[in-house]
Amino acid sequence: MSVLMKGADVANAMKEVLIKKVECLKEKGVHPCLTIVRVGERPDDLAYERGAKKRMETIGIECRILELPQEIEQEDFEEEFRKVNDDPCVHGILLFLPLPKHLDEEPIKAMIHPEKDMDCMCPVNMAKVFAGDESGYAPCTAEAVVEMLDYYGIDPKGKNVTVVGRSMVVGKPLAMMLLKKNATITVCHTRTVNLAEVCRRAEILVAAAGKAKMITSDMVSEGTVIADVGINVDEDGNMCGDVDFETVESKASYISPVPRGVGSITTSVLAKHVVRAAEAVAERK
Ligand code: NAP
Question: Which residue positions in the chain have pLDDT lower than 50?
Answer without folding.
Answer: none
